[in-house]
Amino acid sequence: MTQPVALITGGATGIGKETAKILAAKGAIVYISGRRSDVGEEAVAEIRAAAAGSGGDAFFVQNDVGDEEAVASMFSDIVSRHGRLDMAVNNAGINTESKTLADSDTQAFRAMLETNVLGVYHCMKLEIRQMLAQGHGSIVNLASIAGLNGIPWTGTYAATKHAVVGLTKSAALDHATQNVRINAIAPGAIHTDIIDASIALGVYDTSAIAAIHPMQRMGRPEEVARAICWLLSDEASFVTGHIMNIDGGFQAK
Question: Per UniProt, which keywords does this protein have (predicted)?
Fold first, then answer.
């Protein structure tokens, strides 16, 4: 059986890293991308440790998904090495402010658009082209409960995640008969390093975040990663254009 090749943007921390661990432990060659090489190389060591004995491996690529030329170079390198890309997770994303729309900052919004929308767009274009050329592939994008709802103090961020949902559903319909599946995950609040940093700065309150979910807690990165890996796999072969809620019951309210 051919060893699968996967790319996870923003794969050095949180949900991306946990997804990479699972895929590598199942024998995949996993490329993770991110802006910080020190964090990326640390993540590679963790992923390789999780993959010990499986035949899986991991590599880090320093990359900014908002830079279309850099993204094209990354894809060219992966495909030249392996001849294909079987799975992709467009996970890189940022949230640069928590304000009402009236008080929001245009430059902060522009930064989120560059990463959260154009970053996904840049990657999806190349992923889909390669997967069509090879005759198969599976893509999972990271949306959010903010991409399905209006949430106070997050209007600009929510707009970017609504865009991810639109890109996902439309591209899934474009290629539904071509053996390329495209889905998205809509997580609730997930307990990552980014959340911890925000809590430490007083931006968020742990109990308040937990309380918005009927399960009365935040999610864990591995809980989202397991769902991503299922959507990527052949076990989800009849699933495309789906936005999966991993949100402790938030969307059921």
Answer: Oxidoreductase
How many domains, the chain? 1
pLDDT band at 214 (very low <50, low <70, confident <90, very high): very high
Residue 252 is assigned to a structural domain of this protein: no
Residue entry with tokens 């109990």: 207
Domain assignment present for 78 = yes
Which segments of the chain does DSSP mark as H helices, in order?
Answer: 14-25, 37-50, 68-82, 106-112, 119-134, 155-174, 193-200, 206-211, 221-232
Tens of pLDDT, residues 171-183 = 999 999 999 999 9
Q: Write the pLDDT tens digit of every residue in 39-64.
A: 999 999 999 999 999 999 999 999 99
Domain range spanning residue 26? 5-243
How many Å apart are CA 33 and CA 61, to the nearest integer? Answer: 5
CA 21 to chain centre: 14
* 249 is a domain residue: no
Reported as a single tens digit per residue, the pLDDT across 75-85 is 999 999 999 99
Q: CA 250 → CA 56, 143, 184, 192, 211, distances in Å?
A: 35, 14, 17, 18, 10
Contact 177, 223 (CB under 8 A): no
- Identify whether 121 is a catalytic site residue: no
CATH of the domain at 105: 3.40.50.720
- Whether residue 253 lies inside any domain: the answer is no
Q: Which residues pair with 153 in a beta bridge?
A: none
* Catalytic option among 31, 121, 157, 204: 157
